[in-house]
Amino acid sequence: MNKEFFDALEKLEEEKGIPKEYMIEKVEAALVNAFKREMGGASNVRVVLSPEKKDVKVFQQRTVVEEVTDPQCEIGLDEAKSLSKRNKLGSIVETKLDTKNFRRLSAQAAKQVIIQAIREAERSMATREYESKREEIITAVVDKIDDVSGSLVVDTGTSRAVLTAQEQIPGEVFNVGDHLKLFVTEVRATETRGPIVVLSRIHPGLVKRLFELEIPEIADGTVIIKGVSRDAGSRSKIAVYSRDENVDPVGACIGNRGTRIATILNELGNEKIDVIKYSEIPEEFVAAALAPANVLSVEMDGERTCRVRVAPEQLSLAIGREGQNAKLAARLTGFKIDIKAD
After folding, report:
1. Which residues form the domain of 48?
2. Residue 192 above 80 pLDDT?
């Protein structure tokens, strides 16, 4: 059984990535506790697992004393001397135990500890995997749909996670087998279950990461994303800035006849996206952020407040339906915007 046991540890390392050294440490601790239980609880036991020899050895440790009061933990001087003349008072004498006498009850207890160790390792690995992807996009496949809550169970390739109905873009309809791009917003480790992973399709970070994936000039650092504001499923605004005066940041993001941004729009269910040219001049930035409306003038009124004037026929466009356009512009620029018809 020893060979099969060590083969199983190697298989765990190959298939699940659980380090063999980690499992050996856990198994040794489990066997120590099991043998202590077997021998009355107070005994000192040392377990040695040797992957090279594929061997398991168990030793009972006893202290050399003049008068034995606890045979499980102590050994008389004369008996110790008969084992080795070098033994003296206070020495630790190790006696090899026969593991064949290991009772089934204790074996089951050790087995449960080993199973628990495997689960803990899997949870720890899953947590580390998601931690490395925090605020990044992952691709997942819809594995199951909860008809009552509307939540999706998605398969990321290495584990499963849940996309709640609250984090889905309004109006989206999914089928089992659909491929989705999801934004990892938060990862929380738990002791009893795997990591709690918060996935989102409505987070502004999803739009930001999609642009970074799809637009080469953003990927190579020529064009910088300065901010994103979003009303998921309806409209987003993204402010971009070019570090190369020969590169138009807005044109780079949209592409010839909108070819570049089309992929992003398809992924977001044709959510409208306004690509805004960022400016260090607040008046210019606010005017651009109110697109698609044309702004006549912007006047700063305090540190974070401004007054905007538009032509009467542009007022409803500047404000937007239920004030959406003005709200997104304010969120993007960080200014409170008061819009008036000229």
Report:
1. 2-130
2. no
